[in-house]
Amino acid sequence: MTVSLDSEAVKALAPAGYYIALRVGFAFPMEEFNALPAPWVEHYTLQRFMLYDPVIQWIYANTGAARWSEIDIADPLDILNQAKAYGLHHGVAVCCFDNNPEGQRSFGTFARSDREFEEKEIDILIRHVTRLHHDKAPPTNLTMAELEALRMVKDGMRLKQMAHLLGVSEGAIKQRLKNAKLKLGASTSAQASTKASDYGLI
């Protein structure tokens, strides 16, 4: 069973705030949702906590879910105790990785100020993050010719250049880009090229 929650439903489960990162590879997530308290985000960023955060360390070493209180990783900067000053008393980390060749994982960290998360709530959040992760999966039906055309768009080539280099008509290039846009859900060739690059396809 899949679960798709809107932002209000997630906020109801995690009233103190949450952060979701989708398809994180070696650098930045493909998409992220940050509903954590702004003062905490500022403090966390200025102190460069991410490198030392036991929750983030757990996320990159595990899949599934764990309450913050269950994470047995050193917290030398006392990050989790500092978070309590911003209303983040109880939390759960959720991570999804499906062994995709791009090495991309999706995760979320959710917080409450009043109590620990219940098992049924954790299960809903796991399924929500997993659903978002799969929804952001790269399409597998792009042809080599379409990817080649998108790579050329990324390199800033014009239709005439592309057609000349590939030995085909401009009409053929247009059709390849049209197909690629449709498969990627993009409205322009540039947008399709960016999406394909974000997915690690080109």
TrEMBL record:
<keyword id="KW-0238">DNA-binding</keyword>
<dbReference type="InterPro" id="IPR036693">
    <property type="entry name" value="TF_LuxR_autoind-bd_dom_sf"/>
</dbReference>
<dbReference type="InterPro" id="IPR005143">
    <property type="entry name" value="TF_LuxR_autoind-bd_dom"/>
</dbReference>
<dbReference type="GO" id="GO:0003677">
    <property type="term" value="F:DNA binding"/>
</dbReference>
<protein>
    <submittedName>
        <fullName>Regulatory protein SdiA</fullName>
    </submittedName>
</protein>
<keyword id="KW-0805">Transcription regulation</keyword>
<dbReference type="InterPro" id="IPR036388">
    <property type="entry name" value="WH-like_DNA-bd_sf"/>
</dbReference>
<dbReference type="Pfam" id="PF03472">
    <property type="entry name" value="Autoind_bind"/>
</dbReference>
<dbReference type="InterPro" id="IPR016032">
    <property type="entry name" value="Sig_transdc_resp-reg_C-effctor"/>
</dbReference>
<feature type="domain" description="HTH luxR-type">
    <location>
        <begin position="135"/>
        <end position="200"/>
    </location>
</feature>
<dbReference type="GO" id="GO:0006355">
    <property type="term" value="P:regulation of DNA-templated transcription"/>
</dbReference>
<dbReference type="InterPro" id="IPR000792">
    <property type="entry name" value="Tscrpt_reg_LuxR_C"/>
</dbReference>
<keyword id="KW-0804">Transcription</keyword>
